[in-house]
Amino acid sequence: MSARFEDSTVIVTGASRGLGRSIATAFGAEGAFVFVGYRSREDEAKETLRAMEEAGGRGALLAMDVTSAASMNAAVEHALAARGAIDVLVNNAGVAADELFPLMAEESWDEVMRVNAGGAFHGCRAVVRPMMAKRRGAIVNVASVAGQHASPGQSNYAASKGAILAFTRTLAAELAPRGIRVNAVVPGLLGTGMAKRLDKRIAEKARVQIPLGRFGTGDEVARAVLFLASEEASYVIGQALVVDGGLTL
């Protein structure tokens, strides 16, 4: 496999496990130096770093709180001091707090919006100026099929992911003239994500609705992220690349 990201510097938020780990490892395997973003799961973040190194990559841990502008600014400044530039940001950090809307606590709404939509905002704000200075950079925001289609019991999560899709389109139009490409990847049900937490009967009901007949993998979504971040997508901006096995057809 060609090293599309040789000597590039990549930040992946929420990279301590699951999809974030798959994305970080995939970048590392293609030559990138990857900062493994995490908030509190340092041991799991170290596991991601080990997996990345075993795949032939290089990187370092990067503590951050995506809900805090000060924390994200400090994390990016640390990365810049160490590497000189940031080529790619993947806003992957996210949470879910599923509840039927009549029962949803205000705190559940606020937390999900703050982490998912707010985290993407703070991440982008932190990297935009150094990327503009280089007139080069790529940002990939991780959304969800819940942001495009109804997902009962997830009104907060759906709203946050829908916000990310709208944010991606407008930010792409603003930043493209400055050399920065912004896109989104839209995962469906993954065996390492929401589907893994579902009751087995509910998970099976969801699985049979997928034309490919199975849940996706983190690696399959990671390949889409790498495409959007690479020069292969040099004429692609503001898009939402759906990776869902046909669930939303």
TrEMBL record:
Pfam families, alphabetized: adh_short_C2
EC number: 1.1.1.100
Sequence ranges assigned to domain Ketoreductase in this UniProt record: 8-193
GO process terms (BP): monocarboxylic acid metabolic process
Keywords: Oxidoreductase
Cited PROSITE patterns: ADH_SHORT
Signal peptide: none
EC top class, as a word: oxidoreductase
KW Oxidoreductase (keyword) present: yes
Keyword Nucleus recorded: no
GO molecular function, one term: 3-oxoacyl-[acyl-carrier-protein] reductase (NADPH) activity
UniProt-listed PANTHER family: 3-OXOACYL-(ACYL-CARRIER-PROTEIN) REDUCTASE, 3-OXOACYL-[ACYL-CARRIER-PROTEIN] REDUCTASE FABG
Family affiliation: Belongs to the short-chain dehydrogenases/reductases (SDR) family.
Name of the protein this chain belongs to: 3-oxoacyl-ACP reductase FabG
Organism: Polyangium jinanense
